[in-house]
TrEMBL record:
<protein>
    <recommendedName>
        <fullName>Rho guanine nucleotide exchange factor 3</fullName>
    </recommendedName>
</protein>
<dbReference type="InterPro" id="IPR001331">
    <property type="entry name" value="GDS_CDC24_CS"/>
</dbReference>
<dbReference type="InterPro" id="IPR044129">
    <property type="entry name" value="PH_RhoGEF3_XPLN"/>
</dbReference>
<dbReference type="Pfam" id="PF00621">
    <property type="entry name" value="RhoGEF"/>
</dbReference>
<dbReference type="InterPro" id="IPR055251">
    <property type="entry name" value="SOS1_NGEF_PH"/>
</dbReference>
<dbReference type="GO" id="GO:0005737">
    <property type="term" value="C:cytoplasm"/>
</dbReference>
<dbReference type="GO" id="GO:0005085">
    <property type="term" value="F:guanyl-nucleotide exchange factor activity"/>
</dbReference>
<dbReference type="InterPro" id="IPR051480">
    <property type="entry name" value="Endocytic_GEF_Adapter"/>
</dbReference>
<dbReference type="InterPro" id="IPR001849">
    <property type="entry name" value="PH_domain"/>
</dbReference>
<dbReference type="InterPro" id="IPR011993">
    <property type="entry name" value="PH-like_dom_sf"/>
</dbReference>
<dbReference type="InterPro" id="IPR035899">
    <property type="entry name" value="DBL_dom_sf"/>
</dbReference>
<feature type="domain" description="PH">
    <location>
        <begin position="254"/>
        <end position="382"/>
    </location>
</feature>
<dbReference type="GO" id="GO:0035025">
    <property type="term" value="P:positive regulation of Rho protein signal transduction"/>
</dbReference>
<feature type="region of interest" description="Disordered">
    <location>
        <begin position="1"/>
        <end position="29"/>
    </location>
</feature>
<dbReference type="Pfam" id="PF22697">
    <property type="entry name" value="SOS1_NGEF_PH"/>
</dbReference>
<keyword id="KW-0344">Guanine-nucleotide releasing factor</keyword>
<dbReference type="GO" id="GO:0035556">
    <property type="term" value="P:intracellular signal transduction"/>
</dbReference>
């Protein structure tokens, strides 16, 4: 599951709590950190209070992080981009898509690093950084195209990894000391991780800056600026990601689209779930609609998603948390009646339209992932309830050309008014009657 809104916590597989969230997996593999007090002769000229030492440590961490970032961005270009281009492992167009505007970020961070170093006194201490940050922070808007491109970049990189030459090159890089056991995507994701860290770094500097300090006002202004910048980039990146997945949806009939999907500008979360028969589904929770699909790989194209049920409007969606052992799975008569088939981490969503019930039971990979889905759906329902505008509703079975029936296999939900579901039920009754009659049961 991938949570893409800023309201969710970080889920399990390929997830981000916010679109510009910190890559915690990468952080543990970064180079060892250096402390200001270990780099400079603390108190050589004048004694410093514990609070001032902590302030200097926070400022030094900001500068050291800029240096590490510049080195990593240059490494990504020198060790990955340039060799793959020279050896024709990927085309220039593919590399431009994967690396995006990474080149433009290098001089931006070199500039901040240079300013922070110039502000440093001979003894290693820094008196003022607030004015530097208020002047530099608007440059972070350069991150908008880079972050907005990442979902396409990741999809293309994953696709190209299927090529043996690409796979072999990346594996050799991963085994080389320079990589620090980070793969290419870790390097490409480092700028995004750095972006969300700026509010944390500024907050730490502010924490140890007295209210009467000359730098306090500028730091307060910088804090407001960086939060605004990150929020704006997060919003734009979310819209880009939402549009990407909308474009990857495949409808059953050409030209038959869904109004709720088309109008959605945000994607709360998405990821793989299983239905009650164990079939893998890819479910998307857009701002106004829940969309159930199956992932499809078409030739050398990025993964597409075939709609397999009518989209469910969030406003009319009912959510039910199923207790462990309450749900059964299986596609056979044995599975339908055996207590051994009870499973965990299920929840149910349902929707009634025109007298017909569409009901789906989903199984998450674990309890944490299940709770993430439940939280996201509840938040989406709350947001929809607070919104006064009523979204357009698609007529069942017309806009998408999809069947309204839910999981009608054994152990699933049965909807009324569905001809093919009724036929399946009659066949089941006939089979069960035959089995019971042969055993002499009544």
């Amino acid at each position: 599951m991938r949570v893409t809104s800023a309201t969710g916590a970080r889920p399990s597989s390929s997830a981000t709590a916010t679109r510009v969230s910190t890559a915690t997996a990468s952080a543990t593999k970064r180079r060892d950190s250096k402390l200001w007090s270990e780099t400079f002769d603390v108190g050589a000229t004048q004694p410093l209070t514990s609070k001032e030492i902590k302030r200097q440590e926070a400022i030094f961490e900001l500068a050291q992080g800029e240096q590490d970032l510049v080195e990593d961005l240059k490494l990504a270009k020198k060790a990955y981009h340039d060799p793959m281009l020279k050896l024709s492992i990927m085309t220039e167009q593919e590399l431009n898509q994967i690396f995006g505007t990474l080149d433009s970020l290098i001089p931006l961070h070199e500039d901040l690093l240079s300013r922070l170093r110039d502000a440093r006194k001979p003894d290693g201490s820094t008196e003022h950084v607030g004015h530097i940050l208020t002047d530099w922070l608007p440059c972070l808007y350069s991150y908008t195209p880079y972050c907005s491109n990442q979902v396409k970049a990741k999809a293309l990189l994953d696709q190209r990894k299927q090529d043996r030459r690409v796979q072999d090159f990346l594996q050799r890089c991963l085994q080389s000391p320079f990589s620090r056991k980070l793969d290419l995507w870790n390097f490409l994701d480092i700028p995004r991780s750095r972006l969300v860290k700026y509010p944390l770094l500024l907050r730490e500097i502010l924490k140890h800056t007295p209210n009467d300090h000359p730098d306090r006002q500028h730091l307060d202004e910088a804090m407001v600026m960086v939060q605004s910048v990150v929020a704006d980039i997060n919003r734009r990146t979310g819209e880009s990601e939402c549009q990407y997945y909308k474009d990857r949806l495949l409808y059953t009939e050409d030209g038959r689209r869904d109004g709720l999907i088309d109008r959605s500008k945000t994607l709360s979360c998405h990821g793989e779930l299983k239905n009650n028969r164990g079939a893998k589904l890819h479910v998307f929770l857009f701002q106004d609609v829940l969309v159930i699909t199956r992932s499809i790989s078409l030739n050398d194209q990025p993964v597409s998603y075939q709609l397999c049920r009518q989209p469910i409007p969030i406003r009319q969606l009912d959510l039910e948390d199923l207790s462990d052992g309450e749900m059964r799975v299986g596609g056979s008569i044995r599975g339908a009646f055996s207590n051994n088939e009870r499973t965990k981490n299920f929840f149910r969503v349902s929707y009634r339209s025109g007298g017909q019930l569409q009901s789906h039971c989903f199984q998450a990979s674990d309890a944490f992932n299940k709770q993430q889905w439940i939280n996201c759906i509840r938040q989406a329902k709350e947001a929809a309830a607070l919104s006064g505008e009523q979204p357009p509703q698609a007529e069942p079975g017309i806009d998408t050309g999809l069947e309204i029936c839910g999981e009608t296999g054994l152990g699933g939900e049965m909807e009324a008014g569905q001809g093919h579901c009724v036929l399946g039920c009659l066949l089941l009754v006939t089979m069960v009657t035959t089995v019971f009659s042969s055993t002499g049961a009544t």
